[in-house]
Amino acid sequence: MKTKKSARxxxxxxxMYVPEKVLTNKDLEKMVDTSDEWITTRSGIKERHITAxxxxxxxxxxIAGKRAVEDAGLTxxxxxxxxxxxxxxxxxxxxxATWVQKGLxxxxxxxxxxxxxxxxxxxxxxxxxxxxxxxxxARVLLIGTECLSKITNWKDRNTCVxxxxxxxxxxxEKSGDESGMLSSYWKADGNxxxxxxxxxxxxxxxxxxxxxDEGLHxxxxxxxxxxxxxxxxxxxxxxxxxxxxGIKREDIDYLIPHQANIRIIQxxxxxxxxPEEKVFSNIHKYGNMSVATIPIGLHELKEEGKLxxxxxxxxxxxxxxxxxxxxxxxx
Length: 331
Ligand code: ACO
Prior knowledge:
By secondary structure, this protein is α/β, with parallel strands linked by helices.
């Protein structure tokens, strides 16, 4: 969807949260048959943050959400929609968004979850754009929050070294100037759903002793298959969104790709022919936090003062579903 110059949405505040506990590759060497060297060269990850046993997806979202609202110079009472993108909900129902609404003490603001894997934050921006421009909401609190450590099989070296927990939020409002979301591109392919899946606990495989014995409550991933699709789709989505925005690759100030693997990040940068310094990465310190990686990247770049007014940013993601999307944004 391409929006007219006069009708655009923008980010007016951001906030993030990662749990206190840090798990390093050295720690993982003591847990499974792996090495710091393998994890670093194959994924770029050095450490990740892990929630405390009683800390949840909603808990992280509430902290990140409060920080974003404060950053926007607002109070929670000003928010009239809470949209939570997550694949690790606290409960199947009610939604994590309603737990977050309770935690924020957000009066009667409507609240719902959006499930689009790692692409959830970008899907959330696109959905918010529609709601803000149609007048259904004036200020959306969009939160990407993920607690992957609690659906990870810590005995499976193929997956447990890759993920981390975290949350980040953005307040979205109508833009009154040239800044904001310029264009977007979003797609899905349900035929490939089994390549990255949490098979148990839903209606397909209701929780039972058998599902637990078989480990169906843990995330499963065919890593090298996911890798190939991610590289292809992220490059394609970024180029399509740029075309819609009428922006040339060389004019991009920052690419903020989903942080799943440094090799996917670098391949996407190469596809766009971008120099390394324009391709954002923080995967070494957080691992793959799924839907939280893009808003955390955005928040960190902003806090470091790297997003100058007028900067053109491309955000691009790929995730379970499969889903993929890109958003071009003028800061
Ligand atoms: N330590 C040591 N060896 C390991 C480990 C480990 N932690 N994990 C796997 N290996 C072994 C494998 O068993 C295999 O050994 P074998 O050849 O004897 O069978 C060997 O390393 C190579 O395994 P591959 O899976 O082929 O390794 P690859 O280079 O593909 O890297 C990785 C694996 C890192 C998972 C990569 O495929 C990847 O990052 N894929 C994409 C993952 C991704 O992006 N997921 C998320 C996207 S959506 C989302 O974010 C939720």
